[in-house]
Amino acid sequence: MSAPNPFSGIATRWLGRISYDEGLAEQEKLVAARDGDAILFLEHEPVYTMGRRRDQSSLRDPKSLPHPVFETNRGGEATYHGPGQLVGYFIIDLAKRHKDLHIHLRAIEDLLIETSRNAGVQASRREELTGVWIQQRKIASIGVGVRKWVTMHGFAINVTQESLAPFSYITPCGIQGVEMTCLENEGASETPESFAQRIASHIKSPV
Q1: 182 is catalytic
Q2: In sequence order, what are the beta bridge partners of 17?
Q3: Which candidate in 150, 173, 182, 183 is catalytic?
Q4: Helices (H) and strands (E) in the chain, counts
Q5: Which domains, from first to last, does the chain contain?
């Protein structure tokens, strides 16, 4: 018998395609309101993001990047967000749950792994590497921020081939030689919105 899903019943919303600024503003509004937990699903306009850290070498040459760079308040190194990729933002009060960020990260990984398998893609973890993988290929990145135990940010899973090319300009998540993949390349016929609906169904929450 499988363990209960820790995100079961949390309200979800599909925001469509929005800018990174708009997504961050919506998160900030929900964190400030503290009016219950929520998961936001969306696509972003093309943007590279970087966690707040002194070493920004994973951006390689920022002046050569085809899309803007946004320094943000999540953990982790450089990644890309854009069309063909589903982003999920988790606004969750961990003070009412377990006060453990590592448990939260593993729960997000589990959610993506189970939903990918439901779509016919055998995803898994890799030891000591946060994210979701198909063997040695990375399909989803995870980075979170937390403020007074209320989480922000979450995951980005590559759904269609459109999401992949911009990763070639950076060192994704600072992992040298990593190969990025997407659900389409792994045999699943999905859109970001349809995969969001799969996740919502998995946690029994309507989009």
Answers
A1: no
A2: 43
A3: 173
A4: 3, 11
A5: 11-202 (3.30.930.10)
